[in-house]
Design a protein that fits this description.
248 residues; alpha/beta; TIM Barrel; Alpha-Beta Plaits; seven-stranded mixed β-sheet; two-stranded antiparallel ribbon; 9 strands; 20% strand; binds iron/sulfur cluster
Length: 248
């Protein structure tokens, strides 16, 4: 029963406008195989729930350390980030006076996500929108992603995935059967630079991109333009040529 397939998400946005056509309900999956140096959602990287600390909200009161039943001591100097040993009891989050701590990572079922999306169908219809899975990396929880998208498809909702493309082909191929649109990141055309900036080779990513294009999947290649990393005219040109070479 695919409704009961569970996965870990860290956010859900009902009013996204940059994650595919129309108004989107975007679901943020936890866990990512890449380590991009520019990652704008570091709370997505770990595949497990965690307490995150917002430095700019912290007033350095020390309350989180006082109340932690595990005796986590991370306040010398003032920095509640070192929480290895944390059992996610949530006490520090409740006690923090300034909302500087949050538990990121919630276990939900595919059925819950699909039910949520179904409530938004009138907005999707009016705007030409739908549901987008992002992260983190949705293929990192491929069975859960498949279940969510299959249920949305059954309900007539347009489905999209934002992916880094770093996944076994079999997972992408299965997901393609329930995905109307792939938003596929191409971060750097050069393998050595790709390793330097993301921690992994781009070979599998390029292979998957070529195979998805060949399979006839609807696809948009996207390039996160990062100053000093992949925004030089020569790299931009090489990225475009690589996409063309692969059939985009
Ligand atoms: S309780 Fe909140 S505000 Fe106080 S030190 Fe901890 S994180 Fe900062
Ligand atoms: S969630 Fe609980 S165990 Fe984890 S750091 Fe906060 S108080 Fe300590």
């Amino acid at each position: 029963m695919i409704r009961s397939v569970e996965g870990l998400i860290f956010a859900l946005d009902e009013t996204a406008t940059h994650d595919g056509p129309g108004l989107r309900m975007t679901v943020y999956f936890k866990g990512c195989p890449l380590r991009c140096i520019w990652c704008h959602s570091p709370e997505s990287v770990s595949p497990k729930p965690e307490v995150v600390w917002y430095q700019t909200r912290c007033v350095r009161c020390g309350r989180c350390v006082e109340v932690c039943p595990e005796g986590l001591r991370s306040f010398e100097p003032v920095d509640p980030r070192d929480r290895s040993g944390c059992r996610l009891c949530g006490i520090c989050v409740e006690e923090c006076p300034s909302g500087a701590l949050e538990i990121k990572g919630k276990l939900v079922s595919a059925g819950e996500i699909a039910d949520h999306a179904m409530q938004l169908i009138p907005f999707f219809r009016r705007s030409g929108g739908g549901v987008t899975l992002t992260g983190g990396e949705p293929t990192f929880q491929a069975d859960f992603a498949y279940a969510v998208l299959a249920l949305c498809r059954q309900a007539g909702i347009h489905t999209a995935i934002e992916t880094c493309g770093y996944a076994p082909w079999e997972k992408l191929e299965r997901l393609a059967s329930v995905t109307d649109l792939f938003l596929f990141d191409l971060k750097h055309p050069d393998d050595e630079m790709h390793r330097r900036y993301t921690g992994v080779s781009n070979r599998l990513i390029l292979e998957n991109l070529a195979r998805l294009i060949e399979s006839g999947a609807e696809l948009v290649v996207r390039v996160p333009l990062i100053p000093g990393c992949n925004d030089s005219p020569s790299t931009v040109k090489a990225t475009g040529l690589k996409a063309l070479e692969l059939g985009a």
